[in-house]
Write a structure and sequence with these properties.
Strand order of the largest sheet: 3-5-4
Strand content: under 5%
Helix content: 55-70%
Largest sheet: 3 strands, antiparallel
Shape: globular
Distance between the termini: 31 Å
Structural class: mainly alpha
Number of strands: 5
């Protein structure tokens, strides 16, 4: 008991003891260890392929040097080299020598020599440009970044490092920090410690604290300070584990001075890894203080943990999404923008970064002041009341069978009101999601048409008039050559220059005509013509319209992407489907973008977004949104026996009733399954209904790209399409959505069975949910390592989007990873886990009242 005159420090010590006894810090430590261990293991297992990745990095440069070398050799053979071209040829030969040294250093794993070799390469490229020759694979901003990074490496005497799969301590810490110290990490901490006040209200211990001579502000400050200490402990765990594991097993230098790129548009700079980590840790701490101050405010107004957590998630998700969609809202003083932690750290080039922590402190103090000043309330979410109505309006029934137990569980769930509140929240998410998707869709369509207009203006006002002027000039120059009697120049003008300019003019006129056709087709909504315009672009990208003056190479793209993009337009024309206007290409896993920013730009440019019914559900499946209803309904229905225990164990009352243990267990499972599936399918149907009413149902036959694994492509009778890297085909959007809904239902059933079985042994619902999340994460990580046996693991199918599009099966080269097998495995595991619970409870064949005489309630 707290005595009279207890200060903030005394309350804080009392609070920290409670947090320590709850053992949540152990869960934090376990999650961080598994996260760091998983990232390090993945990077360490890829170390043997470091040479191949290093060679792939320089491949575009090497290929261009080879092409230029043969170009100048051919001109030399024809005796067409002038003095400038001979000087350019010398620089190309020098570059060839440099690449010979560079590849030798890579093959010998002499990573310390590579920065000096790269410096020679960059200087030679600069000399090549001085000699009036270009180097297309490295120019402009990308070359400036390469020069500055190379200067940094040489200045600090650093070796070449595999940026994609690093194993040095500082770089592993940076990689894991980007994962854990993000919005996901904050959500994780909120789920663990967001109920520090409301849990006291639910257990009635908050009333006890209020009866003590302790000022309100002291209670709130003590609770809040305890959470801040937990934040610091979490950061300390991430820092120590993130360094110790790679240091112990990687045996590489710390690399804290390794350069990290900070870029925003055309402005960029490099900072050390230690400075990057300092920024990231500081901003995460500030964002955490802001979120928990908001939670403190809500906790003084609401009585249940569920209401506070749901409102926090709802407000945060809506504000964060709206901020991402509106660049004007991405300001320092917008609290939701502060949650975009990694983006702020990696894109704030100027000195304004330090204003973000200041803004977070201001918002935190404001919210804390509001929490202290505002009178405490005991509100319920959406008007829920503490006054519970009697079961079934006061009518009683003798509970004997499992079905009656299920009815009993449903009445309890109904009285608690959590299911109704969850459905309302999910419904609001669906409505807001519709309008957000609509906003994104309109924005992407406007950007696409703007790009089309710019292309038309470029060819119409600049490129084509320039070539027409060149032809006019050529006529004048030819006339002068004829007047002077220079036969060689006359022949050059007729055989070379005239043909070149006429060919290029016709080439660009064809591009312009196609672009104008596309614009007219868009305005008239003539989608067949619009698809022909896009198909022309895809064929041009594939090199089908090249001539002796237009060179084509695959570059960092893939043949699968090029062929699939063309096949998609042919499918759309065949099925007469309304377009979703975005980029013309289909990004795949086969592209080899060396620049992460370029890859990100290409994916975003070609990402299709629409708020029609079917496509909204597709986006929910593809972007992991399905986890929101699955996890929320799991939280509402999946506690099992663990929900009957705790500080106010209702299981003791159940023990006194003539109810068989297995009947109660099956009642809980049946209720969770029926309620959960109804809610899950219902929210998907509601998304479809809202989108259909306000927009349209969607096109059933809209094509969704599907990977085919190597074994499928090589099998006899394969009917899909092939490209150099692999096979593919398309599946109708409607079929994709139905498969996704079926798989999400099976995932929910599996998780329900898992939570109920764990609830037989674990007395706390929080521990059950945490363990389920942990088992699922570790299970998924291990499942993708199983190769030919991955299809037998239920955790393989948690990533619905990558299962439906065949990516997991293709990466693992395991054609057994399919939606049908996933549903069968998940349903089989659900039945098996339920059977395990039945067998375990079979050892207690007596009624609860008899069991309670020999077995403590906490072990049931």
């Amino acid at each position: 008991m707290l005595g009279k005159g207890v200060g903030v420090m005394g309350l804080l010590r009392f609070e920290m003891k409670k947090i320590w006894r709850q053992k949540k810090l152990v869960w934090l430590l376990l999650v961080v260890v598994l996260g760091v261990g998983g990232v390090f293991y993945q990077n360490y297992s890829e170390r043997e392929a470091m040479k191949e990745r290093a060679l792939e990095t320089i491949r575009p440069y090497s290929e261009e040097v080879d092409a230029l070398y043969h170009f100048y050799k051919e001109r030399e053979y024809r005796e067409e080299l002038d003095d400038a071209m001979r000087q350019q040829q010398e620089h190309i030969a020098e570059l060839g020598t440099i690449f010979f040294r560079w590849k030798g250093a890579i093959h010998n794993a002499d990573w310390g020599k590579i920065p000096a070799i790269e410096q020679d390469f960059l200087k030679s490229v600069e000399l090549l440009e001085v000699a009036e020759a270009g180097f297309g694979s490295l120019y402009g901003l990308e070359r400036e970044k390469a020069i500055q990074k190379n200067d940094w490496l040489l200045k600090h005497e650093l070796p070449y490092v595999d940026d994609e799969y690093p194993i040095s301590p500082a770089l592993v810490l940076k990689r894991i920090s980007n994962l854990l110290l993000s919005v996901g990490g904050i959500l994780f901490l909120v789920l663990f410690f967001g109920n520090v006040v409301t849990s006291e209200k639910e257990q009635q211990t908050w009333l006890t604290l209020k009866t003590q001579p302790i000022a309100k502000w002291k209670r709130i400050v003590a609770k809040y300070t305890g959470v801040l200490i937990v934040l610091c402990v979490f950061l300390l765990i991430v820092l120590s584990i993130g360094l110790l594991i790679p240091y112990a097993f990687g045996k590489q230098a710390w690399n804290f001075t390794y350069p990290q790129l900070i870029q925003s548009g055309g402005a960029f700079t490099f900072i050390s890894t230690s400075a990057y980590l300092a920024r990231l840790f500081l901003l995460f701490f500030c964002a955490g203080t802001l979120i928990f101050s908001f939670i403190m405010l809500l906790s003084t107004q609401f009585r249940s943990s569920f209401a506070v957590l749901v409102l926090t998630g709802f407000v945060g998700a809506v504000g964060f999404s709206t901020t991402l969609l509106n660049e004007g809202m991405q300001t320092i003083w917008n609290p939701f923008h502060l949650l975009n932690i990694t983006t702020i750290v990696s894109e704030t080039v100027d000195g304004s970064f330090w204003l973000f922590p200041m803004a977070a402190v201001c918002w935190t103090l404001l919210l804390l002041a509001a929490a202290i000043v505002m009178p405490e309330e005991e509100r319920g979410l959406f008007g829920a009341s503490d006054m519970k109505k009697p079961f079934d309006k006061g009518r009683t029934r003798h509970v004997l069978e499992a079905w009656n137990s299920a009815l009993f569980e449903w009445r309890k769930l109904k009285r608690q009101g959590l299911f109704r509140q969850s459905i309302i929240v999910l419904g609001l998410f669906a409505v807001i999601g519709y309008f957000l998707l609509g906003q994104i869709s309109l924005k992407k369509e406007a950007e696409y048409i703007e790009g089309l207009d710019e292309s038309i203006a470029l060819y119409k006002d600049i490129v084509i008039p320039d070539y027409e002027r060149q032809l006019d000039t050529l006529d004048i120059e030819k006339a002068e050559a004829e007047k002077s009697g220079d036969e060689a120049m006359i022949m050059y003008y007729e055989d070379v220059a005239l043909h070149h300019r006429e060919t290029m003019l016709a080439y660009f006129q064809e591009i312009l005509a196609n672009s104008e056709m596309g614009k007219i087709a868009y305005e008239k909504q003539d989608w067949q013509s619009f698809y022909r315009y896009q198909l022309f672009n895809n064929r041009q990208s594939s090199g089908e319209f090249t001539n002796k003056y237009v060179h084509w190479e695959i570059g960092q793209r893939s043949y699968v992407m090029l062929e699939a993009s063309k096949a998609e337009k042919e499918w759309l024309m065949k099925h007469k489907v309304q377009p979703i206007i975005s980029g013309d290409e289909i990004p795949t896993i086969y592209e080899s973008w060396h620049d992460k920013e370029m890859k990100k730009w290409h994916v975003e440019k070609n990402r299709k977004v629409d708020n029609s019914g079917l496509f909204s559900l597709y986006l929910y499946m593809d972007n992991y949104v399905y986890f929101i209803p699955v996890l929320l309904l799991l939280f509402v229905t999946g506690a099992g026996f663990a929900g009957e225990k705790g500080k106010r164990p209702t299981i003791q009352t159940l023990q006194k009733q003539p109810i068989a243990v297995r009947s109660l267990f099956f009642g809980k499972v049946i209720t969770a399954i029926i309620v959960g599936i109804s809610g899950l399918v219902g929210i998907f149907a509601f998304v479809l209904l809202v989108s259909t009413l306000f927009n349209r149902f969607g096109d059933w036959y809209y094509p969704i790209f599907h990977y085919n694994s190597k074994k499928v492509v090589e099998a006899e009778g394969y009917t899909g399409m092939r490209a150099f890297e692999g096979g593919f085909d398309f599946m109708p959007l409607g079929e994709y959505v139905l498969s996704g809904v079926a798989l999400s239902v099976c995932i929910f059933l599996f998780l329900i069975a898992l939570t109920h079985v764990l609830g037989l042994f674990i007395p706390r619902a929080f521990a059950v949910y945490s363990l389920v999340m942990l088992i699922s994460g570790v299970g998924y990580f291990l499942s993708v390592k199983l190769g030919d046996f991955a299809q037998f693991s239920p955790f393989t199918y948690l990533d619905i989007g990558r299962i439906l599009n065949g990516e997991v099966a293709t990466v693992l080269n395991n054609p057994g990873v399919t939606v049908l097998n996933g549903c069968l495995v998940l349903l089989g595991m659900t039945i098996l886990l339920t059977g395990i619970g039945y067998v375990l409870l079979g050892f207690r064949t007596r009624v609860f009242s008899k069991v309670s005489k020999t077995v403590p309630a906490s072990t049931i």
